[in-house]
Here is the input.
Amino acid sequence: MKLLVVGGSGYLGRAVAVAADRAGAQTLSLSRSGYRPAGPGAAGTGLVGDATRPGFGLSGAALDEVREEVTHVVLAFGSVRWDCAPSEALAVHDTGMRTVLASLRRLRALTRVVHVSSLLVLGRAEGLVGNRELFVGQRFRNWYEYGKYCAERRVRDAGDLPVNIVRLGPVLGPPPAGAALDTSHGLLAALPYLLTGGPVHLDRRGHYPCYVSEVGSAAQVIMNALDAPSTGQTWSWYDPDLPTLAQVYTDLCAAWGRIPRLVDVPALRPVLRLASRRLGVIPELLDYSRPWFELAPDVLSDLPGDRPVSGGDYVTTTGRHLRDRGRVMAGATR
Ligand SMILES: NC(=O)c1ccc[n+]([C@@H]2O[C@H](COP(=O)([O-])OP(=O)(O)OC[C@H]3O[C@@H](n4cnc5c(N)ncnc54)[C@H](OP(=O)(O)O)[C@@H]3O)[C@@H](O)[C@H]2O)c1
Here is the structure.
């Protein structure tokens, strides 16, 4: 297997490169900033390119190598910022994906592609939703959700390409060597405020699933999807223990010896929204303070390959990792 990881210098892309290296694959990791193998556990070779440009923005020998020799591709590129502008979300995930699909059509040895989608493509879907559904009349909380929806739509429509899709919820766990955990977006963006002890309104005090998974297990599911015999499939992956949002925040804050003040006081919602920037919380985060959507109970049952085991107590370990690097307390004490 000669694997191209598009977005290979990122949090998930690096984890995939490590898993691929363990599986004996030869890996090319592509991103705009390039990929610098960093320390033990780092894997593969870096390519500087841009997925939103024809031929992944490559030229010369690098383009020839990709066009002639790459057999497998993982699409794990693009911003995961919940507060990204519409132009950014659509340029990367919609028109960018159209260009990526055109570039994939020119790979002569291509046998499998896995697109890393997000469970957030389901937006505010109502009723039970599974792997088959994409548009169920949902509205979207932000442009990230809509951008990822557009990307998955384009991938599903590319019936001529051997593509499978893996949907993930928020991914946690200490990052692989060379990658960083960005605390400025996603669930982690609430940490600085939670650590100040301020009250946070969550419906049912956050006792609803948030579909987190551990980064190593997510990478393994992506590898299994690359190996799967059929194509055109969509699978979802999240920690089968299904920790609630309240549990995740409690376990993250434990590293600082704090217990987050999660309250069910809807009147706080508008106050927090108004003051969110001053409190260091992106307003988009507050849109996740209601139950997100409900996945069909059998959604994990058709995953290809062996179901991976999540690495230890990955949520608590994430908190410790951030604490040890002073990544969040700086925000908390601001
Ligand atoms: N992390 C999660 O919780 C999660 C959950 C569900 C789905 N996902 C999906 O997984 C993918 C990766 O997420 P992540 O957490 O690994 O994000 P990340 O750490 O921000 O990594 C994003 C990667 O994409 C690269 N990239 C961005 N624009 C690019 C472009 N135009 N051409 C080539 N490379 C580009 C970045 O490098 P440069 O900026 O240097 O180009 C980086 O390597 C995203 O599509 C995201 O939607 C992530």
